[in-house]
Amino acid sequence: MFGIGKATRDAEFTAFVEASGPALLRVAVGLTGSGAAARELVQASLVKAYVAWPRIRRDEAYAYTRRIMANERVDAWRSTRRESPGDIPDAAAPASASVEDRDQLLRLLATLAPQQRAVVVLRYYEDLSEREVAQTLGISPGAVKSAASRGLAHLRAAATLATKESPR
Q1: Considering 85, 87, 94, 130, which has the largest number of Cβ atoms within 10 A of its Cβ?
Q2: Residues in Cβ contact with 42 at an 8 Å cutoff, skipping those fewer than 6 apart
Q3: Sign of the torsion angle spanned by Cα atoms 92, 36, 21, 155
Q4: Burial of 153 by CB count in 10 Å (0-12 exposed, 13-18 middle, 19+ buried)?
Q5: Based on the number of CB atoms within 10 Å of its own CB, is 122 exposed (0-12), middle (13-18) or buried (19 or more)?
């Protein structure tokens, strides 16, 4: 076999998973709206990334794996077309977010249609450009703009309603 040995490859991949796992899980939670589904999505994506590891450029491994996750999620949407919001995930929140803010955000994201949720998470949480989101999800840039606009409008309306209903 040419290239790096299996032990070296496994060590590199293990280091990648340890470094990127929490960030991948946060993205998956945003994509799925469910802690259990997010863990399954990350696991399935990491299996595919491991198989492709010899071909993946190390500086692009996170983006490559994130794209695998998005593609896996799109495949799931296409096969089910209906989903329920699910449970609230137990993933770690970013250090800057309070528990209440994270909980509210995840509940609001769960109310979005799957494509809107994916666009909002990739565009604003992952800070990808419209073109990058379009490429990742396999949709047009116009569809990204439309889904982002509708998703954000829905989130604003839902957040306003939630704030009026339950003062802190």
Answers
A1: 130
A2: 21, 24, 25, 28, 69
A3: negative
A4: exposed
A5: buried
Amino acid at 25: L
Q: Two tokens at 47?
A: 């299996």
Q: What token pair was written down for 157? A: 């309306």
Q: Contact at 8 Å (CB) between 112 and 83?
A: no
Residue 84 sits at the vertex; the CA angle it makes with 38 and 69, to the nearest 5 degrees, is 30
3-state secondary structure the chain: CCCCCHHHHHHHHHHHHHHHHHHHHHHHHHHHCCHHHHHHHHHHHHHHHHHHHHHCCHHHHHHHHHHHHHHHHHHHHHHHCCCCCCCCCCCCCCCCCCHHHHHHHHHHHHCCCHHHHHHHHHHHHCCCCHHHHHHHHCCCHHHHHHHHHHHHHHHHHHHHHHHHHCCC
Kindly report, residue by residue over 6-37, the tens digit of the pLDDT: 888 899 999 999 999 999 999 998 888 888 88
Distance CA(121)–CA(128), nearest Å, equals: 9
pTM for the structure as a whole: 0.65
How far is residue 69's CA from residue 31's CA, in Å, rounded to a whole number? 9
